[in-house]
Amino acid sequence: MKSRKNSKSHLKITSLEIMHLVNELQKFAGKRVDNVYHGDGRLFLKISSQNGIEIRPDVIFASKGFASESTQFSQMLRKHLKGRKILGIEQHDFDRIAVIRFSEGILVAELFHSGNIVLCNSGMKIIIASDQRHWKDRSIMPGSIYKFPEGVDITKSGEFMDAMNNSEKVVSFLVKNGMGFHAEEVLERCGIDKSAACSSLSSDDRKKLFMEIMSLLKKEPYISGGYLEKALQNEDFTVLDKQKLAVEKMGMKERELRAIAEKIYEKFGEISLSRGMKDVEIGGMKIKINPSISLQKNADKYFEESKKLRGKIERAKVEMKKHIEIQKERKKEWYHKFRWFFTSDSFLVIAGKDAKTNSDIIRKHLESGDIVIHAEIHGAAFAVMKCRKPAAKQALEEAMQFAACHSKAWAMQLGTIDVYWVKPDQVIKQQSGMGTFSIVGEKNYIRRMELRMGCGFVKDELQVLPHKVFEHLGLKCVPVYTGDIKARELAKKIRDRLKQLYIDKAKEIDGMPLSEIESRIPYGRGSV
User: Fold this and answer.
1) What angle do CA 412, 415, 416 make, to 5 degrees?
2) In the chain, how long is the greatest CA-to-CA distance?
3) CB contact at 8 A, 165 and 118
4) b/e map of 208-237 (b: 16 or more CB within 10 Å)?
5) pLDDT top residue among 136 and 417
6) Helix, strand, or coil (residue 4)
7) What DSSP letter does each residue of 410-443 carry, written as one string?
8) If you write DSSP's letter for every residue of 231-281 in order, what string do you get?
9) CB atoms within 10 A of CB 304
10) Radius of gyration over alpha carbons of the chain, in Å?
């Protein structure tokens, strides 16, 4: 029973809008619920005298609220939520489901069909629901474990690519999987026939379509920076793929700017500007004009912008060529589809990039004798250190710092986070979703592990690694911390500092593609 399996071609509230609304609710994180009201299918969590969170059958939003007669449902919610601190508010995958996490308990708002509000304990056991339901594969009844509806998260490239192997019309696939009325717009931009079957699209078309979906999300003012970078952290999209698609888009823009300039020159004698005019139609093309300068200067400006883009394209092509040459020299290993590194004493450490790879690591690659590592923050991926022999303390510290840096703590720009390790037989699979596991028995902690990576040369190869690797090997590096500098700009800053740090390698560093640094920065952002 997935919310996106609604067959209507247009949805009033799409997953994109839910993402927007959930982002606006972040201001309530860390605050406590003063009271709870319920009536006419609506729920209001009063958080201050002025406002709070209102949940209706198909939407969640910040509201000034309402008062209502006490109901059994509101009384039960008050018992469990009143005075509780909100730890986090998030959208489940890219679905019309909002999840509010409290210090004790989890509130799930299903914003599809007739809507439902489900209160669970921290282990996802259902305490109460506004509408009790039962299906073959899923039950919303007190005492049962809450399971999220099965479906496709089209913002995760691995799931998107796998799900495209079906005969369904591509427009229907996008509509029911969260894009709603945005689906046709995205397909038009990609030049893909909306009636085409998903399975008929080439690999390049699928990648282009995924990138266009991500671009739409990124263009919205409410989408946090780094969302696109995070979405593309999957083996289906290599750094080279991203560069190719970026160059293709720049090429289209460059041709458009040049065509505008040529049109202005071609129709120069036919154009007359009125005072305050900002747009003019020339040969069926609507063109923005700056009325404070001459037509010739307008045309020159468009030409200049197209030349700048052409320069960017040429530089990007040179970097792509370097990247291809580097990749040819490297042998593809099984662990390359995960996040990975080797400790200072050569233990392999792997970590998941998403729910699928997280699950794969535990299910397919965890062996007796390995060490499982996890940062103590919701949504963190598991890391596994492959141990052919007992691991030294320094290797364990490096692996735990790696897990810390590749957890949501980095995206949240925290300075430290608690991290623990356990043995393989302490990891138990749960039924609440892909990549969901629980830990039994004693956890072995390192408290307040610092979130710090390093970039420098190890065995004569430039690498981005947990900072402790450089510490234990006694090697110099550029420290990298959490922050809000985008990966591309950060890679440039790191390269400049590397040239100062390794003066004898300055020429070699200059010749390296930025993508070698950029692709290894956690969550696509940081600081130096």
Assistant:
1) 105
2) 82
3) no
4) bbbbbbbebbeeeeebeebbbbbbbbbebb
5) 417
6) helix
7) HHTT-SEEEEEEE-GGGEEE-SSSTT-EEE-S--
8) HT-STTS-HHHHHHHHHHHHHHHHHHHHHHHHHHHHTGGG--PPTT--EEE
9) 12
10) 26
Local confidence band at 412 (pLDDT 50, 70, 90 cut-offs): confident
Here the tokens at position 160 are: 């998107």
d(CA 38, CA 44): 6
Q: What are the b/e assignments for 447-461, b being 16+ CB within 10 Å?
A: eebebbbbbbbbeee
pTM over 0.70? The answer is no
**Burial status of residue 144 (CB atoms within 10 A of its CB: 0-12, 13-18, 19 or more):** middle
Pair of tokens at residue 450: 């610092």
* Confidence band, pLDDT 50/70/90 cuts, at residue 287: confident
> DSSP state, 178?
I
Residue for token pair 């427009």: 171
Angle, helices 203-219 vs 183-190, to 10°: value is: 130
The proportion of the chain whose per-residue pLDDT surpasses 90, expressed as a percent, equals: 26
Buried b (16+ CB within 10 A) or exposed e, 147-171: bbbebbbbbbbbbbbebbeeeeebb
